[in-house]
Design a protein that fits this description.
Elements lengths: L7 H11 L8 E4 L8 E5 L4 E6 L12 H10 L10 E5 L9 E5 L16 H19 L17 H16 L5 H13 L8 E3 L8 E3 L6 E4 L6 E3 L1 H12 L15 H4 L4 H12 L7 H24 L6 H8 L2 H13 L1
Antiparallel strand pairs: 1-2, 2-3, 3-5, 4-5, 6-9, 7-8
Helix pairs in contact: 3-8, 4-9, 5-9, 5-11, 6-9, 9-10, 9-11
Length: 340
Amino acid sequence: MDSTILDLTAVDAYLSAQLPGYRGPLQATKFAIGQSNPTFLLKTPDQSLVLRRKPPGALLKSAHAVDREFRVQSALANSAVPVPKMHLLCQDSDIIGSDFYIMEHLEGRVFLEPTLKGESNETRTAVLDEMNRVLAALHEVDIDAVGLSDYGPPGNYFERQIARWIKQYRASETAHIPEMDALIAALKESIPADDGQRTLVHGDYRIDNLMFEKDGTQCIGVLDWELSTIGHPFADLAAVIMQWQLPPGSEGRGLAGIDRNNLGLPSDQTFIDQYCQRRGLPVIDNFGFYLAFNFFRMAGILQGVYKRAQDGNASDPERATILGSYVPIFAQHGLSAIKR
């Protein structure tokens, strides 16, 4: 373990003082899956824990807010949304150099792609149905009752988000992309009127951010809450459908071109209908707008990655350049969605 990333002596001393029943010695292993907040498995003779921290060094003011992740998962402890148990939040950066929190280590399985390669059709159907159930449960959480009513600003969520991502995109723009300009104009003209839905949203809801039972299909934990806020639930729902429009495989992690019926996977419309049924909602009007919004936001994220590569700040410049080439493709997908 690289001691410059995690000071085990400091963590051991902190846990000895703060966590009842803790007993060292302590070992740590960094999870290999890429996350903007470095995450470590902590092992002692008696238990396993997870430490999630802000990255070391200078950061944007609102980025990597592990305190928000800790807060939202703590608030959901007794809800229908499965989350790990939160143990400790440390906001004393003198301990290991940045804020961090300690949570329960869940033992289960994570599916990296929605094709669920190697699983039976029955398992695929059950897992995707459980994904749907948990999403509906998330959006039915009473944010006042769990103390999250101030977890995000008031007002029209999509107006706010579109304005924010236009600003982010313009700041990282490296060349004129006509498709992005057309998508921005179309989104600004098509923002739905506020329908009063104001719920907790995950912000990055997809199959690989869910953990399931080792030998079953029940979800035991929703992970990676870094982008969570109070917003409009259809943003999360459309994010799932957006992901499925992408090519299958480790790059796109989508379902484009897949014979879903032959694999026991739901169609886009079936998934949407099941979600609406669970929440008691009518048919969603103008779903193409919500889908286009997600394509736009992802294009903005990819443009930022590309800009960092051009500026020499990307950790993997070659991959960042490849991702940047997808910006006009995502924009075109967004235009097609909003015209449907």
